[in-house]
Design goal:
The structure is a single chain. This protein has one domain. The chain is built from 1 helix and 6 strands, in the order E-E-E-E-E-E-H. Strands 1-2 form a two-stranded antiparallel ribbon. Strands 3-4 form a two-stranded antiparallel ribbon. It has a two-stranded antiparallel sheet with strand order 5-6. A hairpin with a 4-residue loop joins strand 5 and strand 6. The longest helix is centred in the last third of the chain and has 10 residues. The protein starts with 14 loop residues before the first strand and ends in a 5-residue tail after the last helix.
Length: 74
Amino acid sequence: MNKMERDLRPEGLAELEYLDGEYRVVKAGSFVVCAVSGVNIPLEALRYWSVDLQEAYATPAAALQRLQEAGKTP
């Protein structure tokens, strides 16, 4: 690897503000943690989150589980 091939993305836990259809990076990082499973989710793979609960989820099943626990779905 030479100096032109360096990965300049910040490492570590990112802090995000979850919005409708997008998120805002509050603190740069490379991943967030699933609120249900505790799995690290790379930002490029993040697809599921709750605006109301301000949490990220690794899978749609995890998102559904959390929303049911919070009484947000039947």
